[in-house]
Amino acid sequence: MSRKPNDTETIAYRLTEILRRLNEGKKLDPHALADEFTVNLRTIQRDLNERFDFLELEKKDGLYCAKPMLLGKLSFADVQHFASLAGLQGINPQLSTDFLKDILDSRLQRVLVIRENNCEDLGDKQQLFEQLKRAARDCHPVGFEYRKADGAKMVEAQPYGLVLQDGIWYLAAMNAGKLKSYAVSKMDRLLVTPDTFTPDAAIAQKVIEEDSIWLNLQKSEVVLRVAPPAADYFLRQKLIGGQKIVKQLQDGGLIVSGTIAHPNQILPIVRQWIPCIRIISPAHLQAELNQQLHAYLAEPS
C-alpha cells in the first residue's frame, strides 16, 4: 500500500533540496526550480525570499546563492531539519527568524536538537526557553521548579541541550549524576548560576544521537512482524527507536527490530497499526496489549 505525500512532506523535500544546493555553493534559477518541482514561480520566489529570508541570500542576474561565509556549514541532517522547520514557519509562528538563525550558529548546533517538524507553542515559557538555550550554550548550571503529577520539586542540573521530540521541547541535563529530560512547559522559577561546568563529550554526543526522551533508562530489544499493508511505512521512515529491518518476507511483510526503554514507546504504535503489526518479542508485551484490547472490548458501549 503506498501513500501520497502530504503537503508538509512535499514542502520539506523541496526546501531540503534547495537548501542543500545553496549550502554547496550553487547558484539557483527560480524558473528552473519551478519546473523541476512542478510548482509555480511565485511559490519558488516565496521559498527564496520569505522562507529563507533569514539566510540573506545574494541575488545577481536573476540567480540566488548563499553568502560565502555560510557555505558548507550545514551537514545533511542539519539541512533536513532546517528546511523542515523553515517550511513550517508559517504554521508555527514560534519558529521565528531568530530561532532559525540560531541553528546556523555553530555554538548552538550541539544545544538545539531537532527531531520533529511539529513544534509546541511555548507561550509564556518562551523567555525561559531562551534562558535555557543560553545556559546550555555557555555551560552554566541551572536550578528550576519542576511540576510532576505528585507535586513540584526543585531541581539543580547541568544543561546539555534542548531537544524537540514529538512536538514537545525537553531540556536534556545532568542531575545527581544521571542524564535526564525535563519538559520545558513544566518548568518554573528558573535560576541560571554564574558558575560554569565542563561538558562531558560522551554525554553531549548521547544527547544528539539518542532518538527518544528516555535518556537514562536501560533499553531492551523489541521485534515486530509487520504485515504488507504497513511495510512501506517502516521502509520509508523510522517509527521506533533504533529501528532496523531484520528481514524482508516473501509476502511483502517485514521483521523489524528496535530498542525501547518503556512499553509506552511501542504499544501505541502497535495499536495504531492493528491488525498489521504483532510483537514477536518480548512476548509479555504482546500479552499486555491483548489484555488491554480484551478489556476495551468488554466495556459496555
Count of distinct strands: 12
The major sheet is characterized as: 6 strands, mixed
* H/I helix tally: 10
Strand content range: 15-25%
Helix content: 25-40%
- Globally, the shape reads globular
CATH architecture of the largest domain: Roll
Q: List low-pLDDT spans.
A: 1-8, 88-96
The CATH topology of the largest domain is SH3 type barrels
In N-to-C order, the SSE pattern is HHHEEHHEHEEEEEHEHEEHEH
Radius of gyration (CA) equals 22 Å
Look at the structure and give the mean pLDDT: 81
Instruction: State the end-to-end distance.
Output: 32 Å
CATH class of the largest domain: Mainly Beta
Helix/strand class:
alpha+beta
Structurally, the number of domains stands at 3
Structural summary, described in words:
β5 and β6 form a beta hairpin. The N terminus is likely disordered. The longest helix has 17 residues. α1 packs across α4 and α2 crosses α3. The chain is built from 10 helices and 12 strands. By secondary structure, it is an alpha+beta fold. It has 3 domains: 86 residues, Arc Repressor Mutant, subunit A; 98 residues, SH3 type barrels, CATH 2.30.30; 79 residues, 2-Layer Sandwich (Alpha-Beta Plaits), CATH 3.30.70. It is globular and about 70 Å long.
